[in-house]
Structures are given as structure tokens and as C-alpha cells.
Write a structure and sequence with these properties.
two-stranded antiparallel ribbon; 2 strands
Amino acid sequence: MAGVMRTWVKGGRLARLSIKARIFAGFGVVLATTVGVAVSGYLLVTQVSSDFADYQQNRAKAEHVRSIDMAMLQARFELSRWLQRFDPAVLKAARDLLDKSVGLIERGPAVGLSGDELATSAVIARALRTYGDEYVIMARIKGEETALLRQDIDQAGEQIAAGLAQRRSRAYEAGDLDQARMLNAAADAFQSARDQTVQLKVTGEAKTIAAASQFAAASQAKLPANSDLAAKLTAWRGALDRASELSAEWSRHLKLSRVARDESMKASESLLAVMARDGVEAEQDFARSVKEGTTAFLAKAAGIVLLGIVISLLLARSITAPLQRLSGAMAALGGGARAIALPDTGRTDEIGAMARTVALFRDGLVDSESRDAIQRRETDAKMARARHLETLTRGFEGKVSALIASLTAAAGQMEGPRTTSRPRPPNLPACRRASRRRQARPPPMSAASRTPRTNSPPASRRSPGRSPIPRSSPAGPTRRPRAPRRRSGRSPPARSRSATWSSSSPASPGGPTCWP
């Protein structure tokens, strides 16, 4: 952009624009700069908002997975409590927590989990379902085992123990010591078997059942085969075998539940690790995006502002530089320089019009000064000619005065003692004024443009019988002979020819008489 403006300035294209257009262009540059900065800021905000949305989405996914893991942890804790107390309420709470975890997993697509994350979540859900189902089975087994221990083992064991004690007492009463010793041994063995069942209730271990079954078999071996106590011991041992089966089934389902639990925990830990890694990457990407976006925004804003400043300076210079040149030229004209070349007269804008106006003003000054110089030279020439004519006139007047004086003296000697009237002396001041008026006249016209004219009055005002008197020409006064005055009874005296002429002022025919 700056290169284009520089090309415009150097190529003279900018000078073709008017000052108004350049001012509007300057405002346009300011507006474009503002819009450019605003667009850069908008792009930065958009980019940061997009990265922040990704960061928030990753945080939401991480929180979602943490919620699932927290629900699973609470479910495991409740199931551990159930294994200790076998409380149905605790088992129900554990089942609710497992269902909550599965429900959170099913909301995975809504929070934006990826394909791999959804697959891992599906593994967790499947493991949790298995985990819950196994505990349901274990609860059923535990219920059946509890009923079996209470009815078929505890109650039947009490009946068998009571029967053995009763028969042992009868044998002692009957004096059958062998029978009494045998029944006593059977009773001791059965008591040991019952102790093992009590241990079974406490520990739930399968080996206690086997030990109880061995003691019951030993007790049964000491009784007759066809006795009712032997049948009861056989049923009791069957209950022990069922309890052993239930214990084995319990152990198997407990193992399966633990496998499902471990699988869910492993998948959850893997998903949490992925979420943590994605969260860290998203946070780093967000921080990097903010930093890079801020840097790019500042760079763009600085570039746009600098470009606007450069363009504004170029526009301002395109106005101020010609004005400064024109101001310098006008100052030079005011200082007296007339041969200077005015700049920017070829521009098509207002500055060019001003320059051409100043050029017209300069040409007018030159013409006026030329006319003034010519007029001064003409005036100087006129003054010199007037001074020369005045000098000649004064010399001529001196000579004429001397001549008149000599003529007057000679005439007086010729007339003798006769008394005659003396001739009137010339009016020298009036003659000098008439001579000055003649000298102050404009120079004579050329022969081609000069037309003869007479100073005679119009015919209507001319006296009858008089001929017009010619005016004096510029070359000198026009003389005409004047008739001599006659004295009564005397002849006129002889006079000089120069004394018989009269001269009038060049300004008017009836001027003062310069000759006596």
C-alpha cells in the first residue's frame, strides 16, 4: 500500500486529486485504519473464543469422566460395606451408584467424547453392568446361604445335638457304657462340626465347611446306620455340601465381580489419563493461541496504524509541500524577484489554480513595472528637454535684452533731442511663463498622425472682414508685421526689423507683448 502511494506521489497522480478529495481520502484512511484494527481485534477474539470453547469442552469432558469415576468409587465403597455387613440397603445404594455411573457414560456423546473415548466409556459401562450383576447374584447366594445355615444347619444341628445328648443320657441311665461312650464321641465330633459352621458364618471360607463335613462324617460313623440320628446327620451333611457349593459359587462370582471392577477401574484410569492429557494440551493450546493471537493482533494493529500514518503523511505532504513552495515563490515576488519560475502551475487541483493566479499576478507586476520604467524614461527625457529649452530660452532672452538695449540707445541717438515717447519694454516675466508653458507641452505628434488645424474661432463667431490669425507652431512663435504707429505731422522713425514684430504667448493668441 505504501509503495502504491509512493508511486502515486512520484507519478503525479496524487496531484490530480483536489484538496477536498485528499482530505476525504485522509478521513478514509483513518476510518480504514480503525476498521482494520477492529477487524484484527474481532479475528483475535474469534480465535481466542474458539480455542477457549475447545478448552471448556475438554474441561467438561474431564469433569464428566471424573464424575463417572467418583460414582464408581462410591459404588465400590458401598459394595465393600455390603461385603462386611450384607445389608440390603447398602447394596441398593451401591446399585444406584452403579446405575448413575452407567447413565453418565451414556451421556458421553452429548459432552463431545471422541470415538476412542466413547469406546473406552463403553468398556467401563459393560464392566460396571457386570460388576453390578455379579453382586446381585452374590446377594442371592448370600440369601440362600443364610437361609441354609439358619434352617438346615443351625436348627437341624441343634436337633441332632439334642438327640445325641438325650440318647447319651439314656445310655448312661441304662448302664450301657459302651453305647454311652460311642454317643459321647459322636456328640463331641458333631459339636466340632457345629463349631466349624459357626466359623463358616464368620469367615465364609470353604475349608470350614469341609472340616465341618469331616467332623459330621466322624460323628455319623459312630452311630448305627439305621438310626434316625444317622439320617439327620446325612441330611445335615447334605446341607453342608450345599453350603459348600454356594460358597464356591460365591467365590466364583466374587472373582468375576472383582475382574469387572478391575476392568472398569483400568478403563476409567485410562480415560482419565486421556482426559488429563487432552486437558493439558487444550490449556497449552489456549495459552499459546492467546499469546500468538495477541502478538499477531498487536503486529497487525501496529502495521495498520503505521500504514495509516504513512498514507496520512503522504497526503499531508502532497498538500503542505506545494503550499510551502508557493509561499516561498510569493515571498520572493514580494522581495522583488520577478524572473523566478513559479512551481506547480501544471497541477489540476486548487494548488495549481493558486499557482497560476500567482503567475498572473507576477506577469501583471512585470508589465506594470515595464510600463512604469518606460513612463519614467519618457518623463526624464521630457524634464531634460524642458531644462535644455529653459537654458536656451534664458540665453536667448539675455541676447534679446542686450539687442533691445543697444537698438534703443541707437534710436535715441538718431532722433536727437526730440522728445518722443519711449517704446514700452518687453514683459519679461510673462515671456518666461509663456516659454515654460511651451516647454511643458506634450511632444509633437508624428507627421502621419498630425493634421493641420487653425486656431481660428468658428465661422459664426469670426468677425467680418478679419482673417484668422494663425497659431504659433511648436517650432517657435509665429510673428506677423504690425503696422507702425503714425504720429501726427511726423514721419515714423526708422526702426530695426526685429523691433517691428510682436510675439504672443504660445498658449493664447492675445498674450503679453514681449517686444516694445
